[in-house]
Design a protein that fits this description.
The structure is a homodimer. Chain A is α/β, with parallel strands linked by helices. Chain A is built from eleven helices and 17 strands. Chain A folds into two domains: about 140 residues, Creatinase/prolidase N-terminal domain (Creatine Amidinohydrolase, Chain A, domain 1, 3-Layer(aba) Sandwich), CATH 3.40.350.10; about 240 residues, Creatine Amidinohydrolase (Alpha-Beta Complex). Chain A is about 35% helix and about 20% strand. In chain A, strand 5, helix 5 and strand 6 form a beta-alpha-beta unit. Chains A and B meet through helix 3, helix 5 and helix 8 of A and helix 3, helix 5 and helix 8 of B. Chains A, B: One of its GO terms (molecular function) is proline dipeptidase activity.
Chain lengths: ~400, ~400
């Protein structure tokens, strides 16, 4: 589960070139996702800050708490390791960082930072490096929008596991139905599929690494499926329910999402009609993900399928979003994002129909954009016939 | 799992009084923990921002994505709900916020924000509300340092579940030993205890809510236990191992942590000596948590036990930290934190000894500070005799 050195060499070289263009002497990288992306260090995030410096001259070091030293080293971090003892520290981590930058002749450097840096941290940094010139740059965010072949390989592997997690969820329900035992609860189903995905990671990979999680699952049953954002509950699945399994998995923190809608027992006409529109919107939404179109245009075309079916009042969210080291990242397949689709983006297509008191319908695949057109990375069957669970 | 309205009335009144003192017209609350604390809204965190406004005049509203509306309402959020459709939006969430503040006569308000606000968000906010005056304030962070009786009740309930999770982990190991089957892996043990804790939450409480998680577990076996911060691995527990179970649980997002060190089979003299020092440091560390002392002083006294035993080279971190809605929050029981212990803080006492290549020893309780002295909220047995798992 490790990206090759060649990958890190390439992204660091790309960054260094961009820093020179922007007139920056270096970038101070402060978020776990960007640090994992640029230097291959994956760590447990706490209040103890980690700062990665990448100079326009190629100089690189990573300041971290001492208790991460051995672990960073074992991961083969692509930067020199410098440590501070603890947080908050008699000498603050920021003072240690400043001392290191001064030692490297960077006391009055032009330093870039990402917009995610907190106002509190920036104030502290300005205080300890008064001669430096600070400016915000979204360069790493832009770089992360398109994926390298080594990353796409991990996205594909995550897709395989995500498909298997869906199958594991279905099997749990079928087994309960066969045995005549109680059907699983939302929480029980979620834990089962997450357990399956996590176990698969540990079985298949030697050195398991992640930034936020390995596998995740949201399970919405019956009327709860009409609330796309509630926290899971102890509600037990019932015959007649619409069920949404909304699953994610990440290999080396390269995520995919896969979501399917199931019906427990013979579907009603109402269920059939909502399902058909959700499925059609998703198909149109995926097919629309071709290079050179705007995210807004793709989104509108997808959601128009729902609006044209007279179900626009049941829309609660956009078509989708980019996926990478973070489960949600730019670009956004939404009206407000005018950026163009490029090759090698990984995007979700997940239009939803949410009927209050009745249920929700959402089918999602992770889609790779290519010069040959959109390619799905998740393949679990989508049709109603295939996703009716007979009772 | 819901705090009573009286709690929210009290914290909001306290905040309003503080805003007036600071000369602020209102506070823009932007982090999930602070929003949960002040208004009782617990939600799935994504890129879609949630902004809670609390005016010095008591006016309150919470701007959120439309898909959270029903869920916030069901939770009885203590603020008027205002929604925007989606992220990033043709009209940005920040523009919607600005419009709402202007509508309420706040176009040129003096607005406080927490240091955790990102530089990117602040830049956007300054752009959409050019007449406002923005200043950083740590008022909510300060308020969260001491706990209210309604919160302490939930911390205690979390302590009970955390103790049970430790017992569930031990039972899993004992059952494997009895059956002669393979011992569990780190990942397997972690999933088992987290599953136990999560299930307990759903069984005991009607409306389960959280900000980051319900139950968490880090499991370090054998030589891995000498690395206090590595991600869990597929290593299987072995006879002779030192084992650290580092568990956490949260009821209504009020966390506790409980950590125990076990030895699988008859301990060696080496294991006995490290264990004895870790236990003594933890006892001294807890006993030292009396009102009016500084965090730095308590920390030094605790870690001196390890240093005085000649094991100072095996220290990798401070004694502990505050616990609340976040698993780690101020104050910090560390040399760099000179703040005084007050009544009704919840703190971890978790000194550790990490011997490279051999193993780690860490025992942690969550401790409530009171006028009668420190009170442990976690009670699982601590002694070596009680935590040897016979083979």
């Amino acid at each position: 589960m490790r990206l090759p050195d060649a990958f890190y060499d390439r992204v660091q070289a790309e960054l260094v070139a961009s820093l020179a263009e922007q007139g920056l002497d270096g970038l101070l990288v402060t978020t776990p996702g960007d640090i994992a992306y640029l230097a291959g260090f994956f760590y447990a995030v706490t209040e103890r800050p980690v700062y990665l410096w990448i100079g326009a001259d190629g100089d690189r070091f990573c300041l971290m708490p001492r208790l991460d030293h051995e672990y960073a080293s074992a991961q083969g971090i692509q930067a020199e390791i410098v440590t501070y003892f603890e947080y908050p520290g008699v000498v603050t981590p920021e003072a240690s960082l400043a001392a290191e930058l001064v030692r490297r002749g960077r006391a009055s450097a032009r330093i870039g930072f990402a917009p995610a840096l907190s106002t509190g941290a920036l104030t502290t940094l300005r205080g300890v490096l008064p001669g430096a010139d600070w400016s915000s740059t979204s360069v790493v965010g832009r770089m992360r929008r398109t994926k390298h072949p080594e990353e796409i390989r991990f996205h594909r592997q995550a897709g395989v596991i995500c498909d298997e997690m869906l199958a594991a969820g279905r099997t749990l329900i079928e087994d309960a139905l066969k045995s005549g035992g109680p059907l699983p609860t939302e929480g029980g189903l979620a834990r089962h599929v997450i357990g399956y995905g996590t176990e698969a990671m540990y079985t298949r990979f030697d050195h398991v690494i992640y930034t936020t999680k390995l596998a995740g699952g949201l399970v919405y049953t019956g009327p709860n499926s009409a609330r796309p954002h509630g926290l899971p509950s102890s509600r037990r699945l019932a015959i007649g329910d619409t069920l949404i399994l909304s699953l994610g998995a990440a290999v080396a923190s390269r995520f995919v999402e896969s979501e399917r809608t199931f019906v427990i027992g013979e579907p009603t006409t109402e269920q059939e009609s909502y399902f058909a529109v959700a499925l059609r919107a998703q198909e149109i939404g995926v097919a629309g993900m071709t290079l050179g179109r705007t995210c807004a245009e793709v989104n509108a075309e997808c959601l128009d399928v729902i609006r044209d079916a007279g179900m626009g009042g049941y829309i609660q969210h956009r078509q989708g979003h980019g996926i990478g080291i973070a489960q949600h990242e730019a670009p956004w397949i939404e009206d407000g994002d005018g950026s163009l689709l490029e090759a090698d983006m990984v995007l979700s297509s997940e239009p939803g129909i949410y009927v209050p008191g009745h249920g929700g319908y959402r089918i999602s695949d992770s889609v790779l954009t290519t010069i040959h057109g959109p390619e799905r990375l998740t393949h679990y069957p989508r049709s109603l016939e295939q996703n009716v669970i007979p009772v």
